[in-house]
Design a protein that fits this description.
- This protein has helices spanning 41-49, 80-87, and strands at 14-18, 21-26, 29-30, 38-39, 57-60, 94-97, 105-108, 118-121.
- By secondary structure, it is of the alpha/beta class.
- The strands form 2 sheets. Strands 1-2-5-6-8-7 form a 6-stranded mixed beta sheet, with no helix packed on it. Strands 3-4 form a two-stranded parallel ribbon.
- Strand 1 and strand 2 (21-26) form a beta hairpin.
- Helix 1 packs parallel to helix 2.
- The termini are far apart.
- 27% of the residues are buried.
Length: 143
């Protein structure tokens, strides 16, 4: 499939640098249903520890705990281990994810992180996979 799209860069616990931005991506999330790339949250810590400390843009399938991670019953289902790692990423400017369709949107960093970055839940579909949300555009200053 990837051969059909030569301009696609698939990031599975890996990174790439584009226009000076260091980008890291991972498809893993804490158990939430019966899908691929799911592990118990505590088992995800080694994956999150692989994220280089100088990452500018982080792309994960799911959110960090308490960051646009509220599902339809009101429960926060993001990764606590990922949240812990975000706090230690000193260059982070943008974290993009989806997975929790109900909490689409964006926000700035939490106070305890003592830095500014934007978190984007870019899920454009609802729970029935109907396109209901517009794409979110984020402008970052190039390096």
């Amino acid at each position: 499939l990837i051969q059909q799209y030569p301009n696609v860069i698939y990031l599975e616990d890996s990174g790439v640098e584009i226009e000076g931005f260091k980008i890291w991506g991972s498809p893993y999330v804490p158990w939430f249903g019966n899908w691929a790339f799911m592990e118990a949250d505590w088992m995800l810590r080694p994956r999150w520890d692989m994220i280089p400390p100088n990452t500018d843009i982080l792309i994960t399938h799911g959110p960090a705990k308490y960051m646009l991670d509220r599902e339809r019953r009101g429960k926060n289902v993001g990764s606590e281990e990922l949240r812990s790692r975000l706090i230690r990423l000193s260059n982070l400017k943008l974290h993009v994810f989806g997975h929790i369709h109900e909490d689409y949107g964006y926000l700035g960093a939490l106070e305890e992180m003592e830095k500014e970055f934007v978190a984007v839940n870019a899920s454009v579909v609802d729970l029935s996979y109907r396109v209901v949300n517009k794409p979110i555009t984020v402008n970052l200053k190039s390096k």
